[in-house]
What we know:
- By secondary structure, the chain is an alpha+beta fold.
- It has helices at residues 2-15, 20-32, 39-49, 52-60, 85-93, 96-104, 112-116, 162-165, 174-180, 184-201, 225-232, 270-282, 313-336, 339-347, 358-369; strands spanning 69-72, 79-82, 123-133, 146-154, 167-173, 203-207, 210-214, 216-222.
- The chain folds into four domains: 2-60, no CATH class; 69-226, no CATH class; 235-294, no CATH class; 313-369.
- The protein has a six-stranded mixed β-sheet. The chain has a two-stranded antiparallel sheet with strand order 6-7.
Amino acid sequence: MFELWAEKMIEGRILYSWTGVSIQKTFPTLIRSIPLFSNNLKDYLVRISNSSFLQDKFAMMNPNYIQPKKYSLGDDGSCFYYIPLMEILVKYILNDDLVKIIRQETSENVSQYVRNNGLHGRLRLMIYGDEFGVCRTVRESSDKYKEYVLYIDVDNRVQNSKIKDIHLVLIWRSSDLKNSGRSLEHVTAPLCQDIARLTNDGISYVLDGESIRIPFCVSHILGDNLGVAHLLGFRMSFGRAFICRFCGLQYSGLESLNNNVFPLAIYQSYESYNEDLNRVLSNKRYESPYGIKCRSAFDKIRINCFQIAPPDSIGDISNMNEMMKVIYNLKIFKNYSSEEELWKKAAKSEIASKNVSKNASEDDTEDESD
């Protein structure tokens, strides 16, 4: 009973964003109304409700608790945190049901993507990238308080629960990484080291008294199109020289589109990706036809960035609708505003936060007038 009440406090903080003040105001009255508790036990629970430090200490006593590892980003004290992948897999993901699903996989009962890349019969890791802002009433700049996070999940389950099955593995402040002058490879290095070790050695598991080895691989890197492009080292904006990293189509190709099938970038091999990346790194004037700008954050585990990240179709549709609204509004503004006033208004729109450049907008306007 004691543990249940303490767990409720921690659960409220994590899942429902309860503040320390709300816990202090609510729980002491409830605790003192419990008839079966001794006064000493009630007093100790009240102490826990009044102290986030004691709540944290109680959470660390849980056998499934994983201590995050702190890594330095710079001399100014900035840092990032890594939750060890192996511990997440052992304590929260692997179980008998999942292992049986993996062992029952064949080339016939998996998706075409899994079958074509030989990923069946393996524990397939999915990595999600996302950025969010932390709200403060008084702040210097919203960019200063943006956090970037990586979550993990596995692709073998028949059905997933977003809250239960997705686990935080990396977190850092975007501005700290930028100010440190370090690359994304520095932040993802601990994760990539664990992935490389698991890919080579697999994971040991005891099923029905038998010790088995489960093969391991990374199958997907997911997120919105802007975030995925950032993680994989691709261009994050589009223009005449670069239209789509999934098909590799250039702007000039739009004029000659027909029903003929042309090779898509997503079918290119790892060797083809690596060859184009080396051209980018060795020649500053070289423009990749696929939009490659730099090494991927996961370069050390040798993934094929052409295939690893499917397009965010839902996000594309939503962004397209937003873009059409902004373009329509810009046309209206242009009739009544000077160019300077027009771009001041455009900068305040939501779409401006998505790295849409003035040149891209001018290209769209020219295309419409043509």
